[in-house]
Amino acid sequence: MTALFLAALFASLGVRLWLSFRQERHVRAHRAAVPDAFAESIPLAAHQKAADYTVRRLRLGRVAAPARAALLLAFTLGGGLQALADVWDQGTLLAGAAFVLSALFLAELCLLPFAIYSTFVIEERFGFNRTTPALFASDLLKQALLTVLLGGPLVYGALWLISSGGPFWWLLLWAAWVGVSLFFTWAYPVLIAPLFFKFTPLDDDALLQRIRDLLQRTGFSSEGIFVMDGSRRSSHANAYFTGLGRRKRIVLFDTLCQTMAAAEVESVLAHELGHFKLHHLRWRLGAGAALGLAGIAVFRLVIEHAWFYEGLGVADVSAHAGLLLFLWIAPLFTFPLRPLLSAWSRRHEYAADAFAATHSDGQALVSALVKMYEHNAATLTPDPIHSAFHDSHPPAPLRVARLRGARTPF
C-alpha cells in the first residue's frame, strides 16, 4: 500500500506542476495581444492584468501543491495521524469523531498561510480584495463553529453506521450521505449562507420586472430574487441559483448589478436558469451519488484490512482512522477522472448558453460574459490541456464563438 500511495501522490503532484507550468507559458506567450474575438471590447491593459493575475495565482499554487503533499506525508507515513490517534485513543465513537475533526482542523491550520497570502497579497495587489483582517478572522471562526456543530454529528453518525450498521452498513452510509447532501442543498440558502452574507430583495423595479418576465416565459418558480453583499469581501462579480424545491433562490452579487445593464443581468440569469430547466442539477446530483456509491464500495473493501492502515502509517484498524485516510487519499486516485468530469460540465455550460440565447438576448449574454472576463481578470488564453483538467467552463474564445454562431434570434 505504501508504494501505491507514494506513486499516486507523486504522479498527481507531478501532473499538477506540469499543467501549471504549461498554463503559465501559454498565458505569458499570448500576453502581448488581445485575442481577435475580444480586440474591440477588452483593452490590452485589462488583458495583461488578467495574464499577470493568472500567473501569480499559478505560482502560489506551485508552492501550495507540494506543501499539501508534504502535509499528507507528515500525517500518514510521518506518524502524525498515529500520534493524534494516541491522544484520542479511548475506544469510543465520540473520541473517534474528535480524532477526525482535530485532524481536519490541524490540516486547515497548516494551510492557512496560503489563504492569507492569496487574500491579502494577490487579491489585494490586483484590486479585488475587500476583506478586512477582522472579517477574515470572523469567517474563519464561523467556519470552525459550523464544522463542530454540523460536521461533528455527521462524523459521529457515519462512524456509528460503520460500527453498528450490520453487513450493509456501507449502503446505509451511502443513503445517509445522499440524504445529507440533498438536505444541505435545500437548506443552504436560508440557514448557512446568511451567516456570511447579507441578502436583500432586489429593489430595482425595471430589472425585477425583466427577471419576472423571464421566469414566466420559462415556467420557473423561485422563492425570491436577492442581492448579496459580495462586495464586502471581493469585487469579483457573479450570479447563481441555489436551493431545491420551494427554497430555490436567485442571487445576484451586488458587484454584478453595479457593472452590467439590465439586459446583461437577465441573460446571465437565463444561463443559470438553463441549468435547472435542462435538469443539469439532477444529472450532477445523480452522478455525485453514483460516484459516492462507488467510493464507499471501495472504502468497504479496505477498511477492515490492516495493510491499508499500516501502509499509510497508522498502526491500528479503526473506523475513524480508516474514514479519514480514505477521504484524504481518494482524490489522488480519482485525479485522472477530472478531464472527463470537466468535459461533461463544459457541455452543460454550452447547453445553458444556448438556452439563454433562446430565452433572452443572446448578444447581451456575449456582452455580459466579456464584462465578467474583464472584471474578474479571467484569462482569455488558457492552455488547452490545463483547461481540460481544471476548467468546468469552456475557454472564453470558444464559448463566445459558439454563442455568436448559435442559430438563435439575437
Report on the structure:
This protein is mainly alpha-helical and 410 residues long. The protein is 71% helix and 4% strand. The chain contains 16 helices and four strands. The chain has a four-stranded mixed sheet. The model has no long low-confidence stretch (mean pLDDT 90).
Considering the chains and any ligands shown, give keywords for the structure.
single chain; 410 residues; mainly alpha; four-stranded mixed β-sheet; 16 helices
Global morphology: globular
Query: How far apart are the first and last residues' alpha carbons, in Å?
Result: 57 Å
- Mean pLDDT, to the nearest integer, reads 90
How many helices? The count is 16
Return the structural class.
mainly alpha
**Rounded Rg:** 23 Å
The helix content, as a percent range, equals over 70%
Question: What is the β-strand count?
Answer: 4
Give a brief outline of the structure.
Helices cover 71% and strands 4% of the residues. The chain has 410 residues and is mostly helical. A hairpin with a 6-residue loop joins strand 3 (239-242) and strand 4.
Write the topology of this structure.
Elements lengths: L1 H28 L14 H32 L4 H9 L4 H33 L7 H32 L4 H24 L6 E3 L3 H14 L5 E5 L10 E4 L6 E5 H6 L2 H16 L2 H23 L3 H5 L8 H16 L3 H22 L2 H14 L8 H7 L5 H9 L6
Parallel strand pairs: 2-4
Antiparallel strand pairs: 1-2, 3-4
Helix pairs in contact: 1-2, 1-15, 2-4, 3-4, 4-5, 4-12, 5-6, 6-10, 7-9, 9-13, 9-14, 14-16
